[in-house]
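User: Let's play a game. I give you a shape written as tokens, and you guess the letters that built it. Ready? Here's round one.
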């Protein structure tokens, strides 16, 4: 029977419509399903079936795309880790080379200082004391510079080493001048 309210097809002796719940009028005639209605319903079902199949295909494509993106992300993550490790190694090597060069320059400056001490020995104890204090002060500054260098890397490290070397060389020059004045 067709419901008068929503036109849904119900059982022959139904008291209420299964779709909208409206009370069925007594004595209604059962629904007459014509071939046109059946064909229309079949066409609608076929359309819905094709739409569901298309949606299923799209979902499968999306799953494949997501899997591909996950693979690419994993590869990119691996590459980032490799690059980070390489950069850290390069920074450590650069720091090591710069520190070694600085140590060599300090050694040469110490040699110069020893030569100055020998020349000051002939001048007197007062000049020697001044030179020792200056040398200790500059050695302390160099240690501070070296600590700062260990925290830096790359070009900053090289620039700081150069600055420290210049300061030490200036200090050595001042010591030479002080030694000459005391003569």
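Assistant: Ready! My guess for every position:
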């Amino acid at each position: 029977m067709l419901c008068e309210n929503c036109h849904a097809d119900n059982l022959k002796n139904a008291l209420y419509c299964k779709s909208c719940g409206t009370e069925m009028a007594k004595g209604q005639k059962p629904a007459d399903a014509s071939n046109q209605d059946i064909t229309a319903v079949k066409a609608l079902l076929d359309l819905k079936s094709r739409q569901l199949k298309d949606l299923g295909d799209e979902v499968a494509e999306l799953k494949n795309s997501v899997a591909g993106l996950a693979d690419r992300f994993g590869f990119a993550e691996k590459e980032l880790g490799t690059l980070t490790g390489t950069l850290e190694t390069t920074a450590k090597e650069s720091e090591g080379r710069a520190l070694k060069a600085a140590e060599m320059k300090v050694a040469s400056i110490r040699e110069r200082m020893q030569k100055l001490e020998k020349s000051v020995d002939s001048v007197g104890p007062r000049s020697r004391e001044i030179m020792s204090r200056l040398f200790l002060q500059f050695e302390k500054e160099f240690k501070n510079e070296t600590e700062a260098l260990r925290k830096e890397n790359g070009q900053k490290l090289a620039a700081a080493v150069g600055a420290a070397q210049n300061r030490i060389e200036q200090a050595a020059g001042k010591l030479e001048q002080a030694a000459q004045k005391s003569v």
